[in-house]
Write a structure and sequence with these properties.
Number of helices: 5
Order of helices and strands: HHHHEEHEEEEEEE
CATH topology of the largest domain: Umud Fragment, subunit A
Number of strands: 9
């Protein structure tokens, strides 16, 4: 057997394992591939593109697999029952929809930032929980999912309630090992421990701005 053929067989085998793993998560959690990608902090089309490009033999990167493991708590490539998440809340922020043909130079800058990496997300804040560190409600904030948070960073996190089957996206300040709010005119919320099970940091806020409506 040639070297290229052997590599192809190993890649196909890994791809098959990854697809079977994703199928199990999808069935047991009653989630689509898009929903799995979203809760793992991936671009929504990451997993659907992966499945569709079968003829190319692509496999998921180790970083992508780790994000899915962290979000679903199903080690690659095991078949374990996943607590069912039935509802996702975006009370504190919603994905920012970039206007493709806007002449606003800030929109153009955000489009450029988003195009540079699949690990960049842009959110519009709906909370004042970061106002004390400069990110007020209504701002568009850029979140880098690859960046490791440092003490005092504003971060995006996922908070799970497996008993109720809910998950929510929240924005807080990272004070090891807690997430804390930074309201200006309100009492801070009770600090919450990042245990990488019920609360998982999904990325670091690296900047933000107000845009013309």
């Amino acid at each position: 057997m040639g070297i290229h053929a052997a590599l192809s067989m190993r890649m196909t085998s890994l791809r098959d394992q990854q697809l079977a793993w994703l199928d199990h998560i999808s069935r047991s959690a009653n989630m689509t591939l898009t929903e799995i990608a979203r809760v793992a902090g991936l671009t929504p089309s990451t997993l659907t593109r992966f499945r569709a490009n079968d003829e190319l033999g692509h496999t998921l990167t180790a970083k992508t697999v780790k994000k899915i493991e962290d979000a679903t708590r199903v080690p690659a490539y095991e078949a374990r029952v996943v607590p069912k998440i039935q509802a996702f809340s975006e009370d504190e922020a919603s994905p920012y929809v970039l206007q493709e043909h806007s002449s606003n130079p800030i929109e153009a800058a955000l489009r450029s930032v988003a195009a540079q990496s699949n690990n960049i997300d842009i959110w519009r804040l709906k909370t004042g929980a970061l106002a004390g560190v400069g990110y007020s409600s209504g701002m568009a904030v850029v979140v880098d999912r690859d960046m490791i948070p440092r003490n005092g960073d504003a971060v995006c996190a996922q908070k799970y309630d497996f008993r109720r089957g809910t998950a929510e996206t929240i924005f807080r300040v990272w004070r090891t090992p807690y997430l804390v709010s930074a309201y200006i005119n309100e009492e801070p919320a009770t600090p919450e421990v990042v245990d990488n099970e019920n609360i998982v940091i999904m990325g670091v806020v690296v900047g933000g701005c107000h845009l013309r409506h």
